[in-house]
Amino acid sequence: MGEEVDYEVFWGVFMVGEATAKAEWINREGRRLLALTMTAQSNGLVEKIYPVREFMQTIIDPLTFLPLSFEKNSHDGHRRSHEVTTFDHAAQRGRWRSLLKDKQKEFPIEADTRDLMGLMYWIRRDPIQPGETRQYRVMTDEKMYELIVEAGRKEPVTLRKYGKIDCLKMEPKGKFNGMFVRKGRMWLWVSDDPRGTICRAAASVPIASIKIMLKRVRGPGDDFWTRMVKD
Fold it and tell me: Where are the domains of the chain?
């Protein structure tokens, strides 16, 4: 725990932003909980023309590994949103509210419902094997969706700081809005090691191709990832 992973975001051949994924322990109302946080922002010329800033955080109960809350604070050009969703798994109800507008609503969930960020971290704990297909039910946009993850074959990914990394290529399929992708197809390359780190992500969308590349792994531990950064 305490891991931080930095990424660079490319639109075509241009580096347009940076993102960081972080996992850490927090204390809230006397409970020790797991916080998964993703931040992203545009840079350079893109920041001046169309600034983008994203903050997403899922708070997870470490005993059940189910989400307690999900917060999203988004600045996308001239559009702003700041919203919080809480989960009552016993009652199978989700509660969404906007922190910028006087809006809120309830919606049904399932007893084992996970949000997208929590699911991706859960997959790291229960790795998918080459050629395997799994189906999940996830909550996003205050609705339940089916997510199918198809694992292909192992492929190497070359990273600037780490060299060639053996990875498993996966394709998640589902109808939902992710952090960087609204429409199109997406592929993930996950390191074939105990960390199961996303080394590369690529998406095909109507106006361009988007690529996300791992830049650096920070935090505790004494393995290949942290030693390479320290050296």
Answer: 4-230
* CB burial readout 19-49, b (16+ within 10 A) else e: bbbbbeeeeeeeeebbbbbbebbbeeebeee
Answer whether residue 62 shows pLDDT above 80.
yes
What are the residues facing 33 on neighbouring strands? 26
Closest to 214 in 3D by CA, of 192, 190, 182, 186:
190
Residue recorded with tokens 């990875």: 167
Do residues 85 and 95 make contact, with C-beta atoms less than 8 angstroms apart? yes
Predicted structure pTM score: 0.88
Which structure tokens are listed for 102?
A: 């006087």
Is the model's pLDDT at 37 over the cut of 60? yes
Distances 146 to 134, 136, 143, 160 between C-alpha atoms, Å? 10, 6, 10, 35
